[in-house]
Structure formats: C-alpha cells, structure tokens
Amino acid sequence: xxxxxxxxxxxxxxxxxxxxxxxxxxxxxxxxxxxxxxxxxxxxxxxxxxxxxxxxxxxxxxxxxxxxxxxxxxxxxxxxxxxxxxxxxxxxxxxxxxxxxxxxxxxxxxxxxxxxx
Length: 117
Prior knowledge:
The protein is mainly alpha-helical.
C-alpha cells in the first residue's frame, strides 16, 4: 500500500476494504489470476502490517474458491500464499475428469509417504 494511502486512510475507507475482504470470492468468468490479484490487493489494504497469521490468509484464499478445488488445496497444504496461488492455477487448468484421478494419485502417494516413515 502506498505510504500516502496508509497514512491518510479514513475509518470509512478501512470499513470498505474490510467489507470487500469479507465478500471476496473467486468468479469463474474472471479466472484465478485475476482473483489472486484482487485478493492480494485487498489483503494489503486490510492488513498493511501483515499481522494476520499466514495460515489464516491462505485459508481465506482457499476457502473462497469453488468447493471442488478447496478439498485438493487443503490436502496439498501450501505454506505460502504464492504457493497456494500457483497450486490453484495448476488445479484450475486440469479438466474436471482428470481432477479426480489427480486427487486419487496424490492421496495414494501421500499415504505411501506416511507409511514409509
């Protein structure tokens, strides 16, 4: 956020940013890249000092996506917002039928890793 905006923001502006943050959701017709851009822009205004835990930010990003992507992203467990965005972009590119196969393959590999520890 520009220093000027941060210094002279009003309570009304902050309220509007929080309202936008609360209703922010992915829209199919706009695409994941545009959603990620809007998400980061609003996040910077809502939390300019980055005091919100990163897990909370990632959860907000993931939970604003369609349910079919939420499950896979939750399982993948990205640890940064950028990783969550990259993973979401990759998942959105997958055809719907392939998504089920990808999930099954991922879960099988994960189970194998857990059992081999």
